[in-house]
Design goal:
heterodimer; A: 327 residues; mainly alpha; MetI-like fold; 2 domains; 15 helices; B: 448 residues; alpha+beta; D-Maltodextrin-Binding Protein, domain 2; five-stranded mixed β-sheet; three-stranded antiparallel β-sheet; 19 helices; 47% helix; globular
Chain lengths: 327, 448
């Protein structure tokens, strides 16, 4: 990435060749720059290798073994595809965690995006104090996947938590939300949806990019607000919607912290919050089946990649890039 | 950005492979490190005994345990005492709450950097022993370097896995049914007694619920230690060799017993039961006022008392108390690959048998394993909750039955599966027979 931003005297481009780069003269060879690039990259590159690439490759290897954390590597046994076979054919709790995660993502992601877009539309006006509101709506997502927030959530959605006290004002008897297997996952969804600040800010930026002429033209043609929204805003915003959709879906699949805190690391009550990543964690670190957990991680990686590819391939049909004509 | 002069600006031009090469070399180097590190760790784990080195050479021993601040303070004081007597030995102390402790211990072990000396309990002892992570303490025991002569035999034996002494009991405890004394007195209700049958206990709990409007008892059907005591009273056991010591019918009866109790209103609602199932000791229902009794270990009394103003009492679990046993509340184990294993063993011996150290540690990890010193500590203690737990344990010690075998590999999974199955029955998502069948099937694959 950083490499491409380095001034490269051999490449022609409008304004990209700065006089200073020229002054160095032709003696500066192309690969000299390349090497410098790598030197500058090295902190990132070493980080990538040590923290991401090598562990990933090792986990791929481990996924074909019976590694259990405690046994030294020299005694680890190669088990071929047994871990993968077990996952698909003999592990009901794996299928259960897949169902829980899909349910979570399918409900929480669209609602979160809808909330983000809705609030962004409201805040995309020149009201007095609109900045304050933007800040306030963004605040929850600053708290992100924090443990503190999840603890607050658990206490709010307890049998005698704030939510039920509020409901009691209207004579409604609440549920023990987080401790009820029928509602625990829904409570997590609400938490995820509430944190719509990040996509909201991106939507806001996208809305500001829509040329006002288009609205004016639409208004002249007699389009009402709804028509303007459907025929101008949505198409113009589609790249941003696409971006948010991909990002939030991946996020949704990776939900871990809140489920971990809410269930004390068990995925309970009765596995109702056993998200995929939580199941993976329990398998690896509590049950000590790290080889199997590695296989689960790789299936997860492939699944997320496939879903992303599907998004990208369907994107052609509904994502409009306004600068597409002059390409 | 300032166009910095690259440090390699003098590199000869014209060699196009110049940049890829260091990268490949770098990759290879990193890969070598990543592969070698665990190998080296593995090799270290297979190393021989301590060389007969200078006994006064400085030694830094890493120690890892779980527990609260009180335990940390006591343990640090006891270790400081050891350093005072052996100035060449210092300690690198790490401690944390129980939740996440075993994740951390496993990760440290995997990283080839496990503590020399660590605390472990019977949920994981067999897991670690089966993989040869723990040092066999038997040679030290027979040479007298680790003195267990004052220990009850059944207590140190509860640390033997596959014929090896994998851990030494850091204290003794047993199951205890803790009840809210103040609540019962306020409503003129009788206190539970040791030896009550399970039926009597449930009937009593129902009466408490009716009179005091507080559920009489936490539903322990998800609690492996209550299930275990009950099984032993039925002539069964948790494990028998490498198999389960019970059948699906036994579990069904256990679940049905508690379904009956729930139907009679003797227990809290399923969501509150669930709270009790998953929270730690400081939020047990007897402390939060959501039930009149909780199922705990006797040595946890002082910790419970800290979290409530009410007076608490403790008796044995219902049924014949001979089903209970002198359980090692937790163990001290030595990492097999430790470079200072002799010193580590000596520290265990010190913590268990030195009068001053034992006095310092008190009953925080359970009753002292050394029976002579146990007497001294119980005479000296001033904490009423601790006094109470000592009294109950001393009374029960007369009635204890034989220790069961140490839980086998897969036990922690069995525990979490029991919670899952019991809660399925509690929430009414399965009937007792279905939940029992689900549990037994899950257990079989967990210990396979």
């Amino acid at each position: 990435m950083a490499l491409t931003t380095a001034p490269d005297p051999t490449r022609r481009g409008p304004g990209s060749v700065r006089p200073r780069a020229n002054r160095r003269g032709p003696g500066r060879s192309r690969h000299g720059d390349g090497l410098a690039g790598y030197v500058f990259l090295s902190p990132w590159l070493i980080g990538l290798m040590a923290v991401t690439a090598i562990p990933m490759l090792l986990s791929l290897y481990l996924s074909f073994t019976n590694y259990d954390i405690l046994t030294p590597w020299s005694e680890v046994e190669w088990v071929g595809l047994a871990n993968y076979e077990r996952m698909f054919t003999a592990d009901p709790s794996w299928w259960h965690s897949v169902r829980v995660t899909l349910t979570f993502a399918l409900v929480a992601v669209p609602l979160k995006l809808a909330a983000a877009l809705g609030v962004a539309l409201l805040l995309n006006r020149a009201w007095r104090g609109v900045g304050v509101f933007r800040g306030l709506f963004y605040l929850p997502s600053l708290l992100g996947g924090s443990v503190a927030l999840a603890i607050v959530w658990v206490n709010m959605f307890n049998r005698d938590g704030a939510v039920n006290s509020f409901l009691a004002l209207f004579g409604v008897t609440g549920k023990p939300w987080v401790n009820d297997p029928d509602w625990a996952l829904e409570t997590l969804m609400v938490l995820a949806i509430w944190q719509f600040g990040a996509p909201m800010v991106i939507f806001l930026a996208g809305l500001k990019q829509v040329p006002t002429e288009l609205y004016e033209a639409a208004a002249v043609d007699g389009a009402g607000r709804w028509r303007q929204f459907v025929n101008v805003t949505l198409p113009m915003l589609s790249p941003v919607i696409f971006f948010n959709l991909v990002l939030e879906t991946i996020n949704g699949f990776q939900g871990f912290t809140a489920a971990f805190v809410l269930s004390n690391g068990t995925g309970g009550p009765v596995d109702s919050t056993l998200m995929y990543t939580l199941n993976l964690y329990i398998t690896g670190f509590t049950d000590l089946e790290m080889g199997y957990a590695s296989a689960m991680a790789w299936v997860f990686l492939v699944a997320v990649a496939v879903i992303t590819v599907i998004f990208f391939s369907t994107g052609r049909f509904w994502v409009h890039y306004s600068d597409g004509e002059d390409r | 950005m300032h166009p910095a002069t690259p440090p390699t600006a003098s590199a000869p031009a014209g060699r196009t492979y110049r940049t890829p090469l260091p990268r490949r070399r770098l990759l290879r180097g990193l890969l070598a490190v990543a592969v070698a590190a665990p190998l080296i760790a593995g090799a270290a784990a297979c190393g021989g005994d301590d060389p007969a080195t200078d006994p006064n050479a400085p030694v830094k021993l890493s120690v890892f345990w779980w527990g609260g601040e009180a335990r940390a303070k006591l343990t640090e004081e006891a270790l400081a005492l050891y350093t005072k007597k052996h100035p060449n030995v210092t300690f690198e102390k790490t401690w944390q709450a129980n939740q996440g402790y075993f994740d951390k211990l496993a990760t440290l072990t995997a990283g080839g950097n496990p503590p020399d000396l660590f605390q472990i309990d019977d949920n994981f002892l067999a897991e670690y022993a089966a993989r040869n992570t723990t040092l066999d303490l038997t040679p030290y025991q027979s040479s007298g370097k680790l003195d267990t002569s004052k220990f009850p035999k059944s207590l140190w034996q509860y640390g033997v896995v596959d014929g090896k002494l994998a851990g030494l009991a850091a204290g003794e405890n047993t199951q205890g049914l803790v009840y809210n004394k103040s609540l019962l007195a306020k409503h003129g209700l009788p206190e539970p007694t040791t030896g009550m049958s399970w039926e009597e206990h449930i009937a009593w709990a129902e009466r408490v619920a009716r009179t005091a409007k507080v559920p009489g008892t936490q539903d322990p059907s998800a609690d492996y230690k209550a299930f275990w005591v009950w099984l032993r009273q039925q002539g069964k056991d948790m494990y028998s060799g490498s198999e389960l010591g019970f059948t699906a019918e036994d579990v069904t009866r256990w679940f049905e017993l508690w379904k009956g109790a729930r139907d009679r209103g003797a227990t809290p609602t399923p969501d509150v039961i669930h709270e009790g199932n998953v929270t730690d000791i400081s939020k047990q229902l007897v402390v939060t006022g959501k039930a009149a009794t909780s199922w705990v270990w006797v040595n946890q009394m002082p910790e419970l008392k800290k979290n409530t103003k009410d007076e608490l009492g403790v008796v044995a679990y219902p049924g014949d108390p001979s089903a209970q046993w002198a359980r090692a509340s937790m163990y001290w184990s030595v990492f097999r690959g430790s470079k200072h294993r002799d010193v580590a063993v000596d520290v265990i011996n010190f913590l268990m048998n030195d009068p001053e150290a034992v006095k310092l540690l008190g009953t925080d990890r359970g009753l002292p394993s050394n029976q002579d010193l146990r007497r001294v500590v119980s005479d000296d203690t001033t904490d009423p909750a601790m006094k109470q737990s000592i009294a109950v344990e001393a009374e029960l010690a007369q009635k204890f039955g034989e220790s069961p075998q140490v839980p086998i590999k897969g036990h922690s999974k069995v525990r979490s599966e029991l919670v899952k199955a019991a809660e399925n029955a509690q929430y009414g998502r399965a009937n007792p027979a279905e939940a029992a069948a689900q549990f037994v099937a899950a257990c079989k694959s967990a210990i396979a």
